[in-house]
Amino acid sequence: MRIQSSLASRIAAFLAVGMIRLIFLTVRVDLRRFAVDFDAQNPNLDDRFLYSVWHDGLLMPLFVGRPHHMAALVSQHQDGSVLANAMRYLHVIPVRGSSRRGGAVAMRRMMSIASDKHITFTPDGPRGPRRKMKAGIVYLASQSGRRIVPMAFAASRCWRIEGRWTDMVLPKPFSTVFCISGNSVSVPAHLNREELARYVELIQNEMDRIQQLIDQAADGQDEIPVVDQRAAA
């Protein structure tokens, strides 16, 4: 039964990746305030970073271009198995674990691979609450010395794939995907609980700020300047 379940998961992931890749071939990408200094699509980037992405926007950084030297935390429930297999097809290393199952093991593995891999982290997780920070990424930054890069994504037109706890945004064909990076955050080592909570709040505020900006851009309600430093590099 386990073999059949694993095979079904791999097949589902293969089909999903193929379908989503076709959609993204039609999608226009609009990069706003995107700093070249922490662009994971650059294979020659010297430093490594922790990318904070809300769970409902996770598909967009995976399929907008191709990230290099990337790992990502994936939950251990069955839906996570499909996502983990999809990440392997996209050359992203899945690290299985969550706050309830395998979290300590996953955190130890992420600390060991943070030396030579970027890590994409969904700080609200698949169980939510939606777009509410948990402390995991701050703890990992404190232990690893890696800077946190808040990121936000939105689409001009999209489907919302309903999950058990949170949904996931999938851009519609020929839509525009908007991407923005916020101010990177360096987290000191050896934080106590109160200091950890302050950094969680700081990153929550930055994630909220850039998400509001990029949602407004997707709705055509503002004039955020396009600063794609990658094009000038």
Query: C-alpha Rg, in Å?
Result: 17 Å
Helix content: 25-40%
Total of DSSP H or I helical runs spanning 4+ residues: 7
Average pLDDT confidence is 84
Question: If strands are numbered along the chain, what order do they take across the biggest sheet?
Answer: 1-9-6-2-5-3-4
Question: What is the gist of this entry?
Answer:
The chain is an alpha/beta fold. It is 39% helix and 20% strand.
3D structure, described in words:
With 233 residues, the protein is α/β, with parallel strands linked by helices. Helices cover 39% and strands 20% of the residues. The chain is built from seven helices and nine strands. Helix 3 (78-89) links the parallel strand 3 (70-74) and strand 4. Helix 1 crosses helix 3 (78-89). The chain is globular and about 45 Å long. Mean pLDDT is 84; it is low at 227-233.
Tag the structure with descriptive keywords.
233 residues; alpha/beta; seven-stranded mixed β-sheet; two-stranded antiparallel sheet; 39% helix; globular
Helix-strand layout with pairing:
Elements: H1 2-25, E1 28-32, E2 49-52, H2 59-63, E3 70-74, H3 78-89, E4 93-96, H4 103-113, E5 118-121, H5 136-144, E6 147-155, E7 158-162, E8 167-171, E9 176-181, H6 193-218, H7 229-232
Parallel strand pairs: 1-9, 2-5, 2-6, 3-4, 3-5
Antiparallel strand pairs: 6-9, 7-8
